Amino acid sequence: MKKENIKNLTPEELKKELLILEEPAYRSDQILSWLYVKAVKNFAQMSSLPFELQKKLADSFYIGELELAKRLISRDGTQKFLFKLQDGNFIETVLIKAAGRETVCVSTQAGCKFACKFCASGKKGFIRNLKPSEMTGQITYLNHKLNFHITNVVFMGMGEPLDNYLNTVKAVKIINDEKCLNIAARRITISTCGIIPAIKKLKNLKLQINLSISLHTADDKLRSRLMPVNKKYPLKKLIDEVENYYKATNRKITLEYILIKSINDSKKDAEALARIARRLRATINLIRYHEVAAQNFIAPEKEVVDRFMKYLRQLDANVTLRVSKGTDISGACGQLAGKMQVQSHKSQVKAKANNN
User: Fold this and answer.
1) Is the residue at 55 inside a domain?
2) Active-site residue set
3) According to the 3-state scheme, what is the secondary structure of the chain?
4) Domain enclosing residue 326, as ranges
5) Are residues 137 and 231 in the same domain?
6) How many structural domains are present in the chain?
7) Can you give the pTM of this predicted structure?
């Protein structure tokens, strides 16, 4: 029987597994404390559990963790981590420290299938979904191995969180649970390019998390060119569903908008964006484009960014400018795609070709 990483289980799932093992459900709290507070590496270290239970757990599960392959520190203090997964793939995680907060930007997939034109993560295609333990493992490694104290979590790293819906929701529940990582739901944000069916399901869960929409233009044709996902889930239907989400949850909506010179930075663009923001009572998170290799887009000058913000504010839109950090280590928005991860993907393609 193939063993599973026990950290893939939510607290409720762990209780069910204990019943299958004919063990009392209250042992769940003890096990979670050993896993997430004391960070033990094997079941034999769980000294408060009977030896027989330790053996049962070891027969069915293992305790896995990520391997740090590389760590980069930016001039502004932002840190980027390249993690090696057990199957040899690589993902990247970013840590941002500011104003008493330590925010981790978590990856949810190795690679990405959505190929947004301004983003590096999808340039080499999709490899696979991450499991819950591989998402939460990015946080626990920083907390336990590097002595950080993560206060906020944003699912904005490599991949599309809602394309990996079930695993992402499980990870959110583990991160939020007081017996596990104990991070308040209101300090957790999921970012999506607009997977409408998953937004509907997320709405019905009524989690107190924040939702961030990678919008980047309010023009349907341009969005289809920049973000191919818009062809399947067009802008009008997306905004309708996001409005439904807001009404059902009353949770904060953020519209991410990467400003690209001469592409989406006109007064007309600002007017269309402001209409959507007012309708959703959303905050616009304006992001100056960060250059990505093999892409011809250009970052706008400071005066263009300032003028665009001025337009939005004149139109009664709530807008903030994201102070981009980690650009010198390719850790800013849209830049996550490590060289080792790319090499790993190339190696897999070559191996498949040889096997055929």
Assistant:
1) yes
2) 92, 333
3) CCCEEHHHCCHHHHHHHHHHCCCCCCHHHHHHHHHHHCCCCCHHHCCCCCHHHHHHHHHHEECCCCEEEEEEECCCCCEEEEEECCCCCEEEEEEEEECCEEEEECCCEEECCCCCCCCCCCCCCEEEECCHHHHHHHHHHHHHHCCCCCCEEEECCCCCHHHHHHHHHHHHHHHHCCCCCCCCHHHEEEEECCCHHHHHHHHHHCCCCEEEEECCCCCHHHHHHHCCHHHHCCHHHHHHHHHHHHHHHCCCEEEEEEECCCCCCCHHHHHHHHHHHHHHCCEEEEEECCCCCCCCCCCCCHHHHHHHHHHHHHCCCEEEECCCCCHHHCCCCCCCCCHHHHHHHHHHHHHHHHHC
4) 67-349
5) yes
6) 2
7) 0.90
